[in-house]
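Standup notes
- DV: blocked on the single-chain target, sequence here:
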Amino acid sequence: MHQPSIIKILSRVLLATAACFLGACNKLDPGLIESAQTRLSKVQESRPELEQGLQNTAQLLEQIQKAPAGLGKNPEFGVPELTTSLEILKSEYKKLQEKHDSLYSSLDGLVGNYIDGQIKKKKVEEGMSSFDNTMTGLQKKRNALAVQFNEYSTKYARMSTAFAALPPPEQAALNNVYDGLPDTLPKPAFRPAVKKPVVTTPENTPESIPQQQ
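- DV (later): unblocked, structure below
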């Protein structure tokens, strides 16, 4: 997490305040710094939601991997396609975490540079405006991923219910068929050529072919 960075900012504020009393103050705006800290806290508060979404996705994938072969590998139930969708969702959650970290680091760096006197107030204000727009987009993405997970979870629940509703002998038969097969069947390296049957026409019938003397 990024708690040390906020502590670092507070330390810089204290040092800057001390510098003001010594006449070397760059007229820092405490309200601006506080506003930036509030935004940084929003990124931190979103982390548990992202981590929970990633954990839920990983747990559902693990549950699917333990499903009976007749359910997990039978294309009629659609579990292989669902597994692919969940893997993509897992990847999207990781990318979103990286974007949150990048957004945090960007604003955190601006505030630090402002306190150190390297940039002006306007630069931080522009950064916070950009932060707000980006954060809004990330929140929409978080919500969309949560909706996707709920859909996938509901789908798998229906698939499991459909398989469980089959008579036990039919379940066992499906398990025997798909047990030991890979998750995706490999394509054949080559296909043997199939000769097409000769179509008989008046020109190639035995009677029309001249006999050798």
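- Follow-up: The mean pLDDT is 82.
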